Every structure is written in C-alpha cells, then in structure tokens.
C-alpha cells in the first residue's frame, strides 16, 4: 500500500521543496505528476503559456494556489474521517468483546448453578425415597399389637419427625437452587441475544472504517502526486527560473531513489531484528521468544512475530488510557520495523486505521476464525483489503501507532468475531506466544 504521510511531515517536505526551487530553480517531488483524479491540473505547457501575459499569469497563480489548498483540505478532511471511523470501529469491537466475555462468565455461572440445583434435587429425591420406605410400616398398628416395644416405636416416630424437618429444609434448598439456576440461565440467555446486535454493529463499523481508510489513502495519494509539482509550477510562474521542469523531474528521480533506499534500510533492520530475536535452536518460532514466521505447524499456523509477550489477554489498566478495560489480545515486543507474519492462511478483510489499534490488518482465516494485527508502523501495511495471504507471509511491520506506548504487535485471535485468549488458542495449534 502507498505510504501515508502525516500532515507535519508533508508540510516539511513541501517547505523543503519550495526552498530548493527558490534557490536553484529545482523542485524535489514525492512522485511523478498524475492526473488520475477527476480534478484537472495544469500542465507545464499551460504554465509556460500563462507567462505570456500578466493577467493570464495571475489567473494561473490563483488557480494553482486554489488547487494546492483543495488538496490539503481534502487530505486533512479524509484523514480526520478515517481517524473518526477507526475510533468508532474500535469502540464497537471493544464493546462486543467485553460483552462476549461477560456472557461467557454468566454462562459459566449458570452452568455451575445448574450443577448445584441438580445435586440438591437429587438429594431431595433420595430423602423422599427414604421417607417413603419408613412410612410403609403402620406405626400405630405396631404400638397396639406390641405394647412392650412402645419405646422403640416412639423413638422411630421422633426420628421420622426429625427426618421430615430435614426433608423440608432440603426441598426448600433444592427449590431455591433451581430458582437461582434459572435466573442465571435467563441472564446468560439475555446477554447472548444482545451479542448479535453488537457483533453486527462492530462489523458495520469495521466496513465503514475500511471505506474511510481507502478514501483517505486516495486523498493523500492525490496530494503526494500533485502538490509538489504544483508548488514547482507556482515557482515557475513567480520567478525568473527557466529550468524548473527539468529540475523537478530530477527531483522526482532522486526522491524515488531515496524512498527505495529507505525501504531497503527498513527491510534490513527488520531482518536484523528477526535474527536477533530468533531462538538459538532455530525452528519455526514456536517458542516463547520465537522468531515468528517460518514453517507452519501441522495445523498450518506460525508465530505472528518475534519478541517476548509483554501483556496478556484480559482486563487490565490500559497503559495508554489509564482506564480499566479488556485487553483483547496479547502484546509481542520485537524491535520497531520487525516483520509481522500472517499467523495462518487467510484473506485480508481490513487494512487501515483501527482507532486505538493504530494501523491494523485483520485476516479471515476460515471456519469462523480471524486474526488481527495492530499498532503497525505508518507505511508498514504490506497488504490490501481482499488480498489472499499464506501462513508465514510478511504482511506488515511492527510499530507504535494508535494507543501504544512503544513498538509492539497487538495480536488477537477471534472466533465468530469475538476475541479469545490467544495463548491457549495458539497452543492448541502448536504455537507458543
């Protein structure tokens, strides 16, 4: 995917380009000019022709300034929309995850209450059978026909009375336990019914966030493709420089070479980080500090990155927001720019701004299972929505975007859209995280 430049970096690049133009008649660009969008941009010939008259020159200056302002406005607005949509998606997903965990806890309580109620009812049934056997003998008749044994029978009557009292208590407890079990089951069932709507909301918000991310990407790409060229054309109109176009094209080539060198540096740094984190015994990275990627296990899974686990699944005080909230995955902390691998074969269902997740990729791994990879470095998403990937394929680079206090991978495993603890989930597939 193209690199998204943050506004401050974009401004610094533009300022540097203009400074070079004013000093030497050159312009450094991020990429060659493009007219792929619906907006019509002036050509170099148009700008040169406008210098023939002062009025045409002024009109062209006004036009170009307007185009530059529009590019900046569009990119800023689309990026803000993407940020807002990402936050809305993350909020909906977190709400669903928390509700799912609560429903599971309610179901566990209902199951435990059911066991208790069943035991109480069984005990009451056994006591009922005992009372039935005791009452089978006609005590009154025995007293009249065998008066010498009256003490024994009176003792029996007293015992039966005590047994009846005990039976009343057991039956009462059994009734109470059954009522508790039913109440817990009703709570769990009500919570389960609510999950459907929450899951649908999270899915809709994710789709909206993807659309917003795509729109922001297009706006930034348009800005990257056109703004620096427009700045150079504006310089051509307002200065005596005559070789601005040639210098601009030289700047394009130089910037492309610089970007390629930067990409190589990042790749080298990621490879070095992966080697440094690799266990001495090598292997597929299934250890607690495995290298990630590698050969999939028999079940087709790999470790998503190198690094030790720094934060487990479960409720915690969030180090970024300082709020008590569900941490729906595990954090693995290799070096910045370290590779992030697809944990299993799958199709990309989300690649964009995930709010608190930062830059995020989500894979549909089939069978109701999905995996999510968060806090990816800006420009570090290496796949796009709808793309199929294989287990162990690099899909991104580790960063610290979103609600993050340092470079790490936030890794989630989901079943039917709801987050589950990745540690036992991955362990069942031969991977230790």
SSE topology:
Layout: H1 7-24, H2 44-50, H3 54-134, H4 139-145, H5 150-238, H6 244-277, E1 309-311, E2 314-317, E3 324-327, E4 330-332, E5 339-341, E6 346-353, E7 359-366, E8 369-376, E9 388-389, E10 394-397, E11 409-415, E12 418-420, H7 422-427
Description:
It is a single chain. The chain has 433 residues and is α+β, with helices and mostly antiparallel strands. 56% of the residues lie in helices and 13% in strands. It is built from 7 helices and 12 strands. The protein has helices at residues 7-24, 44-50, 54-134, 139-145, 150-238, 244-277, 422-427, and strands at residues 309-311, 314-317, 324-327, 330-332, 339-341, 346-353, 359-366, 369-376, 388-389, 394-397, 409-415, 418-420. The strands form 3 sheets. Strands 1, 4, 6, 7, 8, 9, 11 and 12 form an 8-stranded antiparallel β-sheet that branches. Strands 2-3 form a two-stranded antiparallel sheet. It has a two-stranded antiparallel sheet with strand order 5-10. Helix 1 (7-24) packs parallel to helix 5, helix 2 (44-50) packs across helix 5 (150-238) and helix 3 (54-134) runs antiparallel to helix 5 (150-238). The longest helix has 89 residues, at 150-238. The model is unreliable at 1-37 and 279-288 (pLDDT under 50).
């Amino acid at each position: 995917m193209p690199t998204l430049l943050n506004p401050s970096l974009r401004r610094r690049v533009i300022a540097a380009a203009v400074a070079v133009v004013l000093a030497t008649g050159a312009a450094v660009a991020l990429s060659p000019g493009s007219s792929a969008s619906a907006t019509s941009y002036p050509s170099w010939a148009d700008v040169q022709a406008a210098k023939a008259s002062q009025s045409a020159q002024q009109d062209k200056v006004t036009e170009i300034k307007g185009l530059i302002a529009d590019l900046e406005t569009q990119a800023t607005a689309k990026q803000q929309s993407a940020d807002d949509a990402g936050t809305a998606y993350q909020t909906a997903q977190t709400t669903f995850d928390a509700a799912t965990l609560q429903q599971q806890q309610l179901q566990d309580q209902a199951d435990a209450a059911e066991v208790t109620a069943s035991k109480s009812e069984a005990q009451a049934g056994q006591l009922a059978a005992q009372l039935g056997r005791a009452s089978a003998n006609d005590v009154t008749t025995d007293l009249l026909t065998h008066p010498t044994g009256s003490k024994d029978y009176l003792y029996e009557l007293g015992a039966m009375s005590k047994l009846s009292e005990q039976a009343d208590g057991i039956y009462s407890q059994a009734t109470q336990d059954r009522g508790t079990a039913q109440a817990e089951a009703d709570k769990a069932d009500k919570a389960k019914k609510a999950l459907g709507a929450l899951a649908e909301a999270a899915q809709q918000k994710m789709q909206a966030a993807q659309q917003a991310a795509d729109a922001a990407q297009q706006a930034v790409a348009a800005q990257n493709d056109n703004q620096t060229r427009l700045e150079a054309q504006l310089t051509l109109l307002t200065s005596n420089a005559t070789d601005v176009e040639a210098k601009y094209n030289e700047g394009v080539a130089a910037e492309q070479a610089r970007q390629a060198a930067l990409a190589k540096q990042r790749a080298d740094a990621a490879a070095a980080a992966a080697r440094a984190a690799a266990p001495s015994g090598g292997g597929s990275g299934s250890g607690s500090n495995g290298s990630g990627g590698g050969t999939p296990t028999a079940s087709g899974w790999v470790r998503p990155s190198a690094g030790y686990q720094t934060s487990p699944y479960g409720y915690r005080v969030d180090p970024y927001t300082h709020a008590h909230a569900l941490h729906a995955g595990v954090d693995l902390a290799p070096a910045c720019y370290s590779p992030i691998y697809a944990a299993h074969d799958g199709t990309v269902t989300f690649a964009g701004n995930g709010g608190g997740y930062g830059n995020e990729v989500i894979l549909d791994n089939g069978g109701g299972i999905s995996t999510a990879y968060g806090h990816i470095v800006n420009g570090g998403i290496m796949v796009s929505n709808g793309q199929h990937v294989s287990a162990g394929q690099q899909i991104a680079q580790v960063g610290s975007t979103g609600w993050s206090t340092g470079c790490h991978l936030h890794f989630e495993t989901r079943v039917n859209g709801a987050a589950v603890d990745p540690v036992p989930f991955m362990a069942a597939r031969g991977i230790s995280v």
